[in-house]
Fold:
Amino acid sequence: MSVLSDQEIWFLIQSGRLKVDPTPDERAVSPSAIDLTLGNSFQVFEDIETDPDSAVTLSIDLRRSASVMDALARYSRTQTVEDGESFSLQPGRFVLAWTRERITLPNFLAARVEGRSTPARVGLSVHQSAPTVYATFSGQLQLEMTNAGPFTIQLFPGQPICQLILETLSIPASSVLHSVHQSPF
Structure:
């Protein structure tokens, strides 16, 4: 795999082979990445109170994706933040969020989502272990955000939140993702 340069990124966007909607402005494309911005929706997890003296505990069987989706539906809620307002991510908290941009990758490109250095310096992580964006992906990118720092972090819709690093595949992918990632989670 080879990382695309800014010239390659712009060529693919202008030719329509790489779709980024809304189209990034000139400042959003660095020498080897595209800055993506934060959307307006956050999936917030409720505090799960368990009695330490109780024999009842909550657990998720990660082998069953239905179990994960059920837990997300049962123990979280969607919070929408208007432009100009902020979402407060408290220290030690985790939230799911989405990019404002919708992207569509052709069958010869894959990508990685990476955090930005300034937010990382105060403890913000934008993905836990899922940075890969597969060839043929189409949709908004879901971010798994954690505040590992000591400060409450104010997150504003539209602010640059992550970088998309595009890589060419050695040969185009033959399979196509069957689902467009528009899950509420």
In short: The chain has one domain: 2-46+68-168. The chain has three helices and 13 strands.
